[in-house]
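Ticket opened by: R.M.
Priority: normal
Category: complex prediction / small molecule

The reporter submitted a protein together with protoporphyrin IX containing FE and asked that the result be attached to this ticket for the collaborator who will pick it up next week. Submitted input follows.
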Amino acid sequence: MAIQKIIEILSFKDYFLFFILIFATYVFNFYHKYLTRPNPLPGPLPLPFIGNLHNVAHDLRLFFGECQLKYGDICEIMLNGHRWIILSRPDYIENLMSSKCFKRFPYSEGLVEFGFYGHGVAGNDDYKSWKYNRQFFSQALLVPKFMDNAIKSTNKLFEELRGYWQSLGKQNISNHNKDNWILETDFSAWLHAFTNDIISIIATGERTYSIASYYNTQSTVKSDHPDTLVEDGNKFVKLIINNIEGIIFFMVVGPFWRHYVPIVGNKANFYLKNRDDLYEKLDFMIKKRRKEIEEMPMGTEMRTDMLTSLIIANTEKATADNIKTVGSETFEPMIDEEIRGSLLEAFEGGTDTTANSICYIVYYICKYPNVKQKMISEIDSIFSNKSYLTSDDLSKLKYCEAIIKETSRMIPISNFITRYMIEECEVAGRKWAAGTLFHLNFAGVNSHPKVWPNPEVFDPDRFYNVDHGDNEQLENKYSLLIFGGGPRICPGRKLAMCELLLLMTSIYRYFNVELVDKHEPLKIVALTNNNVLEMKVRISPRIN
Ligand code: HEM
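Result attached by the on-call engineer:
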């Protein structure tokens, strides 16, 4: 009754003043908390409600670079109510790579609702469950025949890609000489399709037909693969792409918006439905393969794709390579839900990363003809009388490997990784309380002038025939961040390096690739990763 009376007495002006009072109290509290924070660091002033969102929204990579220049190797911003401590110097990050610093994120109710947090490997911050999943994931990639199979499949898929490029080049009517054609195309689209296809083969033993699908959009004649297979593959890839978007959406959009604001809520429901459809598809693949394996007589030699390894690991069908023990403990075999998580992470972790890497590599090779010449000599010397390369051949490609490292130094694939402290720790000479969130700025570390002379110069020779012991810049093992570090280092790094070497050698063995416009900057979207949106190139056959 009394409340109703007060409501009736109050005028619009009173409400307005009341609102101003609440707003002013919030702003006062916000800045009071900000100005009295422990270990204050330099950084752009955050705004109430949005923190520094307005600063980072345009390009995260450039923003981190600007921060380092203006505020130094350790600085801070505020996002999503959290202080982000940004570190850009190799020796500052060393402590964060220890096994104590294992967590990636603070608890996120959005990721829990989406089913990403606490499951699988990348989104799992529960040590016991992460360790279990990570052991199986890594072991599947370590089965000796796994890499040989990956190499064979990549070689085979590249043959198909080669056929598509030739076919499109010859279809081009301006190419009068059909053996000396030129194809103007988007390299990034082809390579994203290629890595999609190859990860699918390596992970599940089945194809997504992504390169055939892209070929069909460019060509007047269709690929030999049946339309239904290509369409099914396309749908599957879309489910995966939407699922990755869903993870980001549920990470940044708060529960009130997701549950009560209509347009945002519809988007949330769309991602949840997409997730369920994707899970259904993966569960079907797992069940089908489980049944095939069950029906195989004991001792049958099996495929070495990830799905098969995960199903048989620690079961009676396991070979010596598929037994996972830690100390005296033998882990229980994986259930379907856990296998699904691992497959999904192979798709999510291994597709765009590898595709973007090869785009940057080719971009730098196009810009530096002397590097290209030296690389081609190495490739030709290894290929001299072979049609396919083996893992032994790949290990001899030292200059190609140096190009991969130097490209990743110049433009890292991931912009940053995070570490979230669960206990007090010392970083950059200061003590930090539990609950501090650190961001390791890859570009800042990889071009720090203290360890990299002339960091802005592209020079693969830094890594070529270098004796690590004598080399100052390689003394600190975290002066080059490509795959992260510590216990959470990328488990797919060996596979990724192998894929990149194979792609480089296969492309330059058969083709010349030039940028259509050497002066045009690359079209990149820089969020957690630096994604190449488009890279127009001219491809032509190599005439020896
Ligand atoms: C050029 C290619 C790749 C790059 C640049 C890359 C980069 C990274 C980085 C920076 C991390 C975070 C590491 C950390 O926090 O310290 C990571 C984690 C991860 N990557 Fe990769 N990656 C690549 C390829 C792959 C491939 C091919 C796979 C799988 C087949 C894969 C699967 C994963 C998984 C599952 C994690 C999470 C590991 C964990 O949390 O324990 N990645 N990767």
